[in-house]
Design goal:
- The structure is a single chain.
- About 30% of the residues lie in helices and about 25% in strands.
- The protein is built from seven helices and nine strands, in the order βββαβαβαβαββααβα.
- It has a seven-stranded mixed beta sheet with strand order 5-4-1-6-8-7-9, with helices on both faces. Strands 2-3 form a two-stranded antiparallel sheet.
Length: about 210
């Protein structure tokens, strides 16, 4: 099928958390001059994901302001305090019918890149698998691509992405990345750890 005739792949960027362990809203930490949440929306757009949906919750107004110059649509999750699974469901429920799949992205993973997202789409197109996950040295984690055939299961459950990966692993495909690409930011010390891990990648070091 010609590329232009294929259904689009949407982005669901999860950006609703309270960042309790960080002590401040980590989504507003800057990476190479842009906030983590703005970076996540940007790489999704650069990867060709359409639309880019960003799920907000904690400090929604401040996070939305950080996204003012990004080509994305924000979705408010009024139940964000109940945990990340509710934002996962909220985002998937907002994916328009024009999209045949969605990639779920966490805003606090600054070493995820647009080429990584494009690789998930390529594996999806190659294999026809209903789920394509990222494999970091044997650890499965986002970003993860979900085919529309899984959307009703996601919407009707209380589970998060890892549970769906386990359930459908026999039908899933994966893309393997170096283990250090999994680096996320939960605590203040994670910032320094990331700096030590990749001292030559200034653009990937938050400030």
């Amino acid at each position: 099928m010609p590329e232009e005739a294929r259904p689009s792949v949407a982005a669901v960027v999860l950006a609703a958390g309270a960042s309790r362990r960080m002590g401040r809203n980590k989504l507003l930490l800057e990476v190479g001059g842009e906030t983590l949440v703005a970076r996540a929306a940007r790489i999704a757009a650069e990867a060709g994901l359409d639309p880019v949906l960003v799920v907000l919750g904690h400090e929604a107004d401040r996070v939305a302001e950080a996204l003012a110059e990004r080509a994305c649509r924000t979705i408010l999750n009024p139940e964000h305090a109940s945990g990340q699974a509710s934002s996962f469901r909220t985002g998937i429920a907002a994916v328009p019918a024009s999209a045949g799949a969605a990639i779920v992205i966490l805003s606090d993973m600054p070493r995820v890149t647009a080429p990584m997202l494009r690789a998930l789409i390529a594996r999806y197109r190659e294999t026809g698998a209903p789920l394509v996950f990222s494999d970091y040295g044997g650890v499965s984690a986002p970003p993860t691509l979900y085919d529309r055939s899984l959307f009703s299961e996601i919407a009707g459950g209380q589970e998060f992405g890892r549970d769906h990966v386990r359930r459908h692993r026999d039908r899933a495909a994966s893309v393997v990345w170096p283990a250090d690409r999994l680096a996320d930011l939960d605590r203040p010390e994670d910032v320094e750890r990331l700096r030590e891990m990749a001292p030559d990648e200034a653009a990937s070091t938050p400030t």
